[in-house]
Amino acid sequence: MALIEVEDLKVYFPIRGGIFRTIQEYVRAVDGVSFSIEKGQTYGLVGESGSGKTTIGRTIIGLNKMTSGKITFDSISLGEDRRRSRLNIQKDIQMIFQDPYSSLNPKKRVIDIIAEPLRNFEKLSTQEEKSRVQNLLDIVGLSPEAMYKYPHEFSGGQRQRIGIARAIALNPKLIIADEPVSALDVSVQAQVLNFMQDIQKELNLTYLLISHDLGIIRHMSDYIGIMYKGRYVEQGTADEIFTNPQHIYTKRLLSAIPDIDPRQREVIFEKRLKVRDEFVKLSKNYFDENGLAFPLKPISKTHFAALPERG
Amino acid sequence: MDEELVKIKQLKTSFRVLDDYYAAVDDVTLTIYKNEVLAIVGESGSGKSALAFSIMGLHNRAKIEGEIYYRGENIANASPGRWNKLRGREMGMIFQDSLSALNPLMIIGTQIEETLLLHNPKISARERKIRVIDLLMKVGIPRPEKTYYQYPHELSGGMRQRVIIAIAIANQPQLLIADEPTTALDVTIQAQILDLLRQLKNEMRAAIVLITHDLGIVAEMADRVAVMYAGQIVEIADVYTLIENPLHPYTKMLLKSVPSSSGAKSRLHVIQGVVPALHKLPREGCRFRGRIPWMDASVHESNPMLHEVRPGHYVRCTCYQYFHFPDKYKEESSHGTH
Ligand SMILES: Nc1ncnc2c1ncn2[C@@H]1O[C@H](COP(=O)(O)OP(=O)(O)OP(=O)(O)O)[C@@H](O)[C@H]1O
Ligand SMILES: Nc1ncnc2c1ncn2[C@@H]1O[C@H](COP(=O)(O)OP(=O)(O)OP(=O)(O)O)[C@@H](O)[C@H]1O
Ligand SMILES: [Mg+2]
Ligand SMILES: [Mg+2]
């Protein structure tokens, strides 16, 4: 059974404007998105910047209000039962935030930042708490003396690891990881990704992984969803998306992946321009009159794409 | 090679930790030429941002030693007034930390206009707004007239980053330091921004210092690449040499950690150990030796120098000549083994 199911989720924000900053219209940040994640699997969410990925994550943990739709976690509907289920949800779903700077309280020491969730949910002695934090620091590759320092004393990558240590402190069931490693260098990235896979197996963790790095998404994900302007354009297994992309936006995204071979520069550049021109030329066939994606249509049992009705 | 724009000599940038100063940038000598993209890569905490901040005069609490020449003028310890002039007109920086670089209480339009005013205080309000909308369009903001009136928290991470980029290129700087400019962006916008940087370079013959973790971006953008480890440059070469024939053990290991494009779900290569905290950095001998413990101590130099192995290709320490990966690579997981 799916651990989490999101059905036709919509999240709209008002846009204010003019001199009096009155509501002028709404941003449809998430505009009818459905997906589900099986226990123990990793679901990769990619897409255009500003397409609503973070908003989906924030809505699942309750930081944004849903406009309509339904989210079911572990058989509990989050929409209606929010208050009753709140305490457990807070423990079971953790989020690693995109921005390692603003998500850490600058006035707190690392030990207090990481131990905060522990203090809320578990009664540990000072000594127990210290050893738990030490263990968590070790897991994310920070030295024990980091404990008594403040966030500003760390580099960008080091701060992101502190956020990860805090997120895993309570052994959650679902981790929403919003760009968890984009601030890290590739070697530490490798370490964190390997580690995420290890604890996933050990603890039967489920991940919703949001990333712009398609190499990482492919490496980590069982299923992948691709978003454009608040809607899905394609969904499928990692293989289906990478070897048989159907939607023109997916194709464009794939063509934009940088290549590690500097001698391919010109070739890639040319190819990218070609795909971009094709995207511009064909986009009226792939998007409705408002420039939004069509509803998903099945390509196979697991593969769906937002293609227009034929004929 | 083009003419020199920035010349850094034995730069040492130190922070106070506990009761003493410790160098985060330790003896960096580097020339940045006009019309080039110089990529800086290196482990998290190796001093890349600290170096960038030093070049831009943005450290307020750090001790700066050594020389930084910008067009022949030593600006290492220039007055705040001088720095403000330089930053507004000649140098631009895209910060790694995009959120805190924007003023949360000011609409986007006004923030960009402030930068335009630094360069040209006489420009009319109408003209300013046109320029701002144009800049927002250039960086790929879909509805610039709306974004003009929005506050930072109303934008997605990627949109904020594009605003920062718009501010950095507003005055067409001669030197642009881009600290992880595109990590928050999707790859299509990333491609667009990288094009924009290329354009800036081609049209203005500007120098671009590109700090990034993404070796794919390095391969696509850089003319030269400097690799930093523990506050020092350990290797520097043109991009082809660096990626095809890296010499320093750290560079070799870095290139091995990239997830393969075939998408195999195998384990990724990890460099053992952690970057030591600033005040615990080994400052004697080869700083990388602790990360390659299987190599014999005798392969390292006692006072490692940057050696020019071929014209333009420099490597620190002699250990590269003997370096090999361990016989059977222990794929080290991070589980409490260090
Ligand atoms: N609090 C808010 N008020 C108004 N608009 C918002 C708010 N939060 C998000 N938005 C808007 O909703 C849309 C989706 O934003 P979201 O942060 O979910 O995008 P994203 O896919 O995570 O993008 P990125 O990849 O750039 O992080 C954007 O247009 C954004 O400007
Ligand atoms: N203001 C500060 N006070 C004390 N130490 C600092 C300060 N800023 C940076 N450091 C330390 O200096 C070293 C270099 O930091 P820097 O931010 O330059 O790393 P970086 O190479 O940019 O890393 P990343 O890739 O993670 O951004 C790190 O050990 C960091 O903890
Ligand atoms: Mg986001
Ligand atoms: Mg940095």
From TrEMBL, chain A:
Gene Ontology BP annotations: peptide transport; transmembrane transport
UniProt-listed InterPro entries: AAA+_ATPase (IPR003593), ABC_transp_ATP-bind (IPR050319), ABC_transporter-like_ATP-bd (IPR003439), ABC_transporter-like_CS (IPR017871), Oligopep_ABC_C (IPR013563), P-loop_NTPase (IPR027417)
Similarity field: Belongs to the ABC transporter superfamily.
Natural source organism: Evansella caseinilytica
Keyword tags: ATP-binding, Nucleotide-binding, Transport
PROSITE patterns, A to Z: ABC_TRANSPORTER_1, ABC_TRANSPORTER_2
PANTHER family: TRANSPORT ATP-BINDING PROTEIN
UniProt name for this protein: Peptide/nickel transport system ATP-binding protein
Gene3D superfamilies per the UniProt record, alphabetical: P-loop containing nucleotide triphosphate hydrolases (3.40.50.300)
GO MF entry, a single one: ATP hydrolysis activity
Pfam families: ABC_tran, oligo_HPY
Domain named ABC transporter: residues: 4-254
From TrEMBL, chain B:
UniProt KW keywords: ATP-binding, Cell membrane, Membrane, Nucleotide-binding, Transport
Segments forming a coiled coil: none
GO biological process, any: peptide transport
GO MF annotations in UniProt: ATP binding; ATP hydrolysis activity
Chief localization: membrane
Organism: Evansella caseinilytica
CC annotations in GO: plasma membrane
Cell location: Cell membrane
Record protein name field: Peptide/nickel transport system ATP-binding protein
Segments forming domain ABC transporter: 6-255
One Pfam assignment: ABC_tran
The family this protein is said to belong to: Belongs to the ABC transporter superfamily.
Its membrane topology: Peripheral membrane protein
Phylogenetic classification of the source organism: Bacteria, Bacillati, Bacillota, Bacilli, Bacillales
